[in-house]
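Incident log entry.

Two folding requests arrived from the same account within the same minute. Monitoring flagged them as a possible duplicate submission, but the sequences differ. Recording both here for audit purposes.

Request one:
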Amino acid sequence: MKRIVLIATLIILVDNLVICQTNKENFPVLKGPYLGQEPPNLKPKIFAPGIVSTDDINHSTICITPDGNEILWAMAPLDKPSRIYFSKLINGVWTKPEIISFTKSEDGDCPVLSPDGGKLYFNSNRPTPHDSSRRERIWCVERIPGGWGIPFPLGSEINADHLHWQISVDRDGNLYFGSERSGSKGRDDVFIAEYINKVFKNPFSLSSEINSENHEGTPYVSPDGAYLIFCRDGLRISFKQNNGLWTKSVYMGDNFKDGICPYVSPDGKYIFFLKIGMGYNDVYWASAKIIEELRNKVLK
C-alpha cells in the first residue's frame, strides 16, 4: 500500500514538473526594455498583446519601477476580482507574469508606484482592520528586502469619503485622486491631499483650470509636479506655472480622445492609457513627445 502511495506521489510530482516546465516554455523569451516590445510612434498601439493586454479585463494601465526592470498592472477575468500582476527583468529576460503576493487572496487594482519605487499604492475593496465593510479604498504597501511588506489602508482623511479609480503620487508624496465629495465642483473632481511632515492633509479640489461641472478623474501627475494629465471626455493636460498656479487644461488630441488612466514612463518617453468603450481590455502606449509640444504651446 505504501509503495502504491509513493508511486502515485512521484507521478503527481513529475506531472507538476512537466506542467511548470511547459508553462515556462510557452511564455516567450522577452528581452529589452518594456517587455521587449517595439516602441510606438505618435499613434497609440496596444502594449504587450497576449501578455499585458489579454482576453482578461485590464482595469488599469501599467506602472514601472524607476530602473525599468519591473512592470506591474491589474487584470480581472470576467466577474472575478482584479489581481495585480508583475514581471521582472532578470539576467536580461522578462519573467512570466505572476500575481503579486498581497492580491492572491484579496482584490487589488490600479497599482501606482511612488517615484522612488519604495511604495506601491493600489485600490482594493478588502475590509480594513477597523471596518469590515467592502468598498473602494486606497491602500499602500512598502518595499522590503526580497519583496513587499504588509499592505495598510490610508487614513480617514483619504478613505472616509468617496474616491474612485486611478491615483497618482508626486516626488513630495502628494496624492492626486478622483472623487465626488465635499468641495467638488461637479460630478467628480481631481483632488489633492498634500503630504506634509509625513502626514496627508485634508484633500481639496484643484482649481477650475482643471475641474469643472463635468467628470474629471484618473489623474497622473509627473514626479516633479510640473504637469497633470487626467480624463475629461478624453485626456487633458495642465501645466504648473512659475507662480505655482495651473494653466487651463488643454485637450491632448484625437489620439487620446477615448483615453483614461494615463501614465508616463519613468524615462518620460512613453504615455500609457486605457480606452473608454473598448471594454478596458487593452493597454495602449504612444510617444510622449506630445507633452513637450503642448507645454511649448501653453507656456509660450
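Request two (distinct sequence, not a duplicate):
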Amino acid sequence: MHSFTGDPGKRLDHFLQEKLSEYSRSRIQSWIKDGLVQVNGSAARASLLLHGGEAIEVSPAGLPPLKADPEDLPVEVLYEDASLIAVNKPAGLIVHAGAGQHAGTLVNRLVHRFGALSQLGGEMRPGIVHRLDKETSGVLLVARTDTAHRALAEQFAGRTVEKIYLALVHGKVRADSGRIMKPIARDPVRRTRMTARLESGREALTTYTVRKRFDKFTFLEVRIGTGRTHQIRVHLASIGHPVAGDRVYGSRVCDPPAERMFLHAWKIGFLSPATNERVTVEAPLAPELETWLAGL
C-alpha cells in the first residue's frame, strides 16, 4: 500500500501519476475505477480536485495475465535484444485491439511469437510503448519487460528518442527545410480528427527537410520532437501540404489513385535498456511506396 498527502489544486489522477511514476497512466486509472484508491477513507473519482491535506491510500492490484490472444500471423523483426523488439509494421495493420477490432492486430502477432511482454501498457496492449497510425508503416518499439517499458517511456517523455519519417506531400514546398510549432487539439466538431487551428492544445514540434521535388508533390524527411496524435499529418496539412493519400486531412486526388497514405516511420534512435548503448533501427521504405516514387 502507498500513502500520500494530497497537494492543493491537482486532480487525483494527475497527482498519483506524479507520485507513482513507475506505473502506467492506464493502470492508475483502473485502480481508481476499481475503488483501490481511497481519499479520506472513501473511493473517489479520477477527476477529484484535491484541496490539500487529504489522506490518500493506494492498494495496487496485481498485474493481470495477458488477455490479447496469440495469433500465428507474420511479423517482421528489425532488431531485438533482452529488453525490446523493433518491428516493421505494414500499413493497414492496427497496433492493438480497440473499438471494433479484437483480432489480427500487431499485438496478437507479438504475443504468439514472443510470449511474455511488458504489461504496463494494459491487458490488451502488452509491450506497447508508443504507436503508429493504422495507415502508417515503419519501425515500432515493443518492450519485453516492465523495467524496459519504464526506461523507454522515460526516453519518449524526455524527448531523447530520435524519430525520423518519410512523407510525400501535395504541392511544392518552397523552403528546403522548415519548422512547425502549432499546438494540437481534438477537433471540436469531428472528434475522430485532430486540429492545429486552435490556440489551445498540446505543444507540438515538427521539422522537415526536402529530399526530392516532383511536379505536383514534394518528398520530405520529417522529424518530430513530440509525439502527438496524428502530429505529422495535422502539421503538414496546416501549412497547405497534406500527406499524399491522407483523406482525413485533405489529400487531393492522386494520379494514379493512392492505395495508402504515404507516411513511413523510417528510423528510430534510442538507448537500449539492456545494453545502455545507443541504437538506431531503420525500416526500409515499403515496396508500394518505392513503386509510387518511381512512378513520379
